[in-house]
Design a protein that fits this description.
Number of helices: 4
Radius of gyration: 22 Å
Shape: elongated
Helix content: 40-55%
Number of strands: 3
Distance between the termini: 48 Å
Strand content: 15-25%
Order of helices and strands: HHEHEEH
Length: 142
């Protein structure tokens, strides 16, 4: 790949990442955004220097973070994260072709759970205060 092609690939990748930012993995993307994203992906695929990944599976090895999902059948899974009590923070995939493993992982968060942990921390702090006097560190928070 030439330096000009490398620069074009880098620019397309930056554009794609900027475009999908804030779309909640594609859940918030409308038809127009989906078409634009698909066009950027098609341009990147056309510049791919390894068109047959099955001949170089080691290129897939590593830890991957999902930024956008165009597979509409999986979007209902992301809808769970649109509820006020649960949010999808991160979706990752670890691939190791030498031992033939793929590990998918989803990190969820809940404002309610965070609030509950803060309340437990404050309660424990009050319980421990008589045991340790004023040495309980109040500057650390969850």
């Amino acid at each position: 790949m030439t330096e000009l092609e490398d620069n074009k690939v880098a620019k397309l990748k930056r554009c794609l990442v900027d475009y999908v930012y804030g779309m909640e993995f594609g859940f918030r993307a409308g038809l127009e955004e989906r078409v634009e994203i698909l066009e950027l992906v098609n341009q990147l695929e056309a510049l791919n220097s390894t068109p047959a990944l099955n001949e170089s599976p080691d290129l897939l090895d590593g830890n991957w973070v999902l930024l956008y999902m165009g597979f509409s059948e999986l979007l209902p899974l992301l809808a769970v994260g649109s509820t006020p009590l649960l949010k999808v923070n991160k979706i990752t995939q670890s691939i190791n072709t030498s031992i033939l493993t793929i590990v998918n992982s989803t990190t969820l968060s809940s404002p309610f759970f965070h609030f509950l942990l803060q309340e437990i921390f404050l309660y424990l702090k009050q319980l421990l205060k008589p045991l340790f006097g004023t040495s309980v560190n109040s500057s650390k928070h969850l």
